[in-house]
Design brief:
Layout (H helix, E strand, L loop, with lengths): L7 H16 L3 H7 L4 E10 L5 E12 L5 E8 L4 H17 L5 E8 L7 H15 L8 E5 L5 H15 L23 H17 L7 E5 L3 H12 L3 E6 L4 E3 L6 H11 L9 E3 L1 H5 L5 E4 L18 E3 L8 H9 L3 E3 L1 H4 L2 H14 L6 H26 L3 H20 L4
Parallel strand pairs: 3-4, 3-5, 6-7, 6-10, 10-11, 11-12
Antiparallel strand pairs: 1-2, 2-4, 7-8, 8-9
Helix pairs in contact: 1-3, 1-14, 3-14, 4-5, 6-7, 6-12, 6-13, 12-13, 13-14
The structure holds nicotinamide-adenine-dinucleotide (NAD).
């Protein structure tokens, strides 16, 4: 589902302008926040397995660091572009502020089709890209993490490349690493778990109980796959699932463990025996109580928002809803829990991983999950309080809270020189 008339960057800037009016932001700070502080584009030459050389374009965009080092994932996708990475870097600034962790916002990306790279080629792309952005990143400067099509192994290569260049092991330069090289317990499922901690509170507000509540999940990677599995364990009924190539629907319920095992073996959900085939487009408007968009941006737009039947939409992906899509859903009485709050669990546990690395500690899973829960529940109610203060929906409230916090830091720091 796309509506390419509004780019993600347009949406993010429009939201900032709306928020600025709402919180009566100083025009100077508004102007500062409309731009990334630093943008780097790199051309990474890589010798492919067949002996030819290909040049991959990569980006690292740093939006704002008034509250702490830059933080943000690295995505591998054929459609990665500078505007998209800039928008995602801004979203990271707001996300870190909304959950009140001492980080700024950044994002990175490499234009490539990860499905067409061998493991060895992916490693070479990662290492060359890391070396070319190495001046910008660092434990107290900018700490990358996983995003679309990058995973703990990718993070281990980033850590190793950076460490080799500096001459000693520096695990705190990147988060989302495998546990054996400084990763945190609970990081892999952190975004999904954080989303569920928010959903639990949204369910209380609506007076719903998990047992039998129906859920549709778009995208079954790190965020969507883990969310579906955890929700199934909690008694929710998963009625539809998708990936980039296929989508399945069964109103009686789908066991995500079985469906994901099938997908891992066959490459997609095509031919899955215990459900009907559907499309990503139809999936979003399927009858359900909860919709979890956990794939890509710009999925819920003015074209399909009126047909969304869910009562709660909780955003696993970054920017899955356009501003028009959001307005339509809100006017239809749907509770929309926005991305910068709902999917912040990943960056919260990244922050916990960074603290563990800086102190050379390793915490138990229970401790990590408990701290995550505390952060997510507090942030959820901080946003609810802000909805009351400004009489707005959760998206506008989350943005108001975040922009207010960043603005306060910027004011206190002043402008140098
Ligand atoms: P992933 O690569 O692990 O999974 C992405 C999933 O989306 C895959 O199942 C893929 O097949 C599917 N997909 C891709 N294009 C699609 C399309 N057009 N229609 C339907 N499905 C499609 O990525 P991820 O880490 O799970 O990230 C998913 C979203 O969540 C992204 O927007 C990402 O920025 C956001 N996010 C991720 C994290 C994290 O910790 N991984 C944290 C916060 C936000």
């Amino acid at each position: 589902m796309t509506e390419n008339t509004t780019s993600l960057l347009d949406s993010v800037l429009n939201q900032l302008d709306t928020t600025a009016k709402m919180v009566e932001l100083s025009p100077d700070i508004h102007e500062i926040l409309r731009y990334p502080k630093r943008v780097l584009q790199v051309a990474c030459p890589v010798k492919m397995d067949n002996g030819t050389v290909r040049v991959f374009t990569g980006y690292r965009v740093q939006h704002q660091d008034a509250r702490g080092p830059y933080k943000g994932g690295i995505r591998y996708h054929p459609k990665v572009g500078l505007d998209e990475v800039t928008a995602l870097a801004m979203l990271m600034t707001w996300k870190c502020a909304v959950v009140d962790i001492p980080y700024g916002g950044a994002k990175g990306g490499v234009v490539c089709d990860p499905d067409k790279l061998t493991l060895g080629e992916k490693e070479k792309v990662t290492r060359r890209y890391t070396s070319m952005i190495s001046e910008l990143i660092g434990p107290y400067k900018d700490v990358p993490a996983p995003d679309i099509a990058t995973d703990p192994q990718t993070m281990a290569w980033i850590m190793d490349t950076y460490s080799q260049m500096k001459g000693y092991l520096i695990p705190e330069v990147v988060t989302g690493k495998p546990i054996d090289v400084g990763g945190s317990e609970g990081r892999v499922e952190a975004t999904a778990r954080g989303l569920i901690f928010c959903l639990n509170e949204a369910m209380k507000i609506r007076g719903y109980k998990p047992q039998g509540t129906t859920v549709v999940v778009q995208g079954t990677g790190n965020v969507g796959g883990n969310a579906a599995t955890l929700l199934h364990q909690m008694g929710y009924r998963i009625v539809a699932l998708s990936d980039s190539r296929s989508a399945i629907h069964n109103p009686k319920g789908i066991d995500p463990n079985k469906a994901l095992t099938y997908k891992a073996e066959k490459g997609s959900f095509k031919g899955y025996p215990d459900a009907e085939q559907t499309t990503n487009e139809e999936l979003l408007t399927t009858q359900c109580d909860i919709l979890v968009p956990a794939a890509m941006e710009n999925q819920i737009t003015k074209t399909n928002a009126n047909r969304i039947k869910a009562r709660i939409v909780i955003e696993g992906a970054n920017g899955p809803t356009t501003p028009e899509g959001n307005t339509i859903m809100e006017s239809n009485g749907i509770l929309v829990v926005p991305d910068i709050l709902a999917n912040a669990g990943g960056v919260v546990v990244s922050y916990l991983e960074w603290i563990q690395n800086l102190h050379r500690e390793h915490w138990k899973a229970e401790e990590v999950n408990e701290r995550l829960k505390e952060k997510m529940v507090k942030s959820f109610y901080d946003v609810i309080e802000t909805t009351k203060k400004y009489d707005v929906d959760m998206r506008n409230a989350a943005n108001a809270l975040a922009v207010g916090r960043v603005s306060s830091a910027l004011k206190l720091l002043g402008i140098w020189p």
